[in-house]
Amino acid sequence: MTQLQLDNQHNAIIIIPSEMPNDDDFELWAQLFLHGPEIVIGEFAAGADRHQCRFTYAQQSFNLNFEHYSNSIWINGEGIEAEHLLAALAHYFLTLLQQ
Length: 99
Fold this sequence. Notes:
Elements: E1 3-7, E2 12-16, H1 26-33, E3 39-46, E4 50-57, E5 60-67, E6 72-77, H2 80-84, H3 86-98
Antiparallel strand pairs: 1-2, 2-6, 3-4, 4-5, 5-6
């Protein structure tokens, strides 16, 4: 089961999936993870070692990040208002994961 950790020091939600996606599968993994009625998925960008998917929640912008070399996935907010919503967003994802 996927676990979430709110990291207040770095203003991020750390995502620990039960199985880490492959580099080539991250876009599909992101679409499945972000599937929820209050989430609007935006653009996807793929780099050599980091991929990013932008999305909105509660009218604020966030980034779902995947770094292949460190096998890390995290969400950060774009701006102070989004950062203040990280705890609510983590709770929202936990609710979706339990359904």
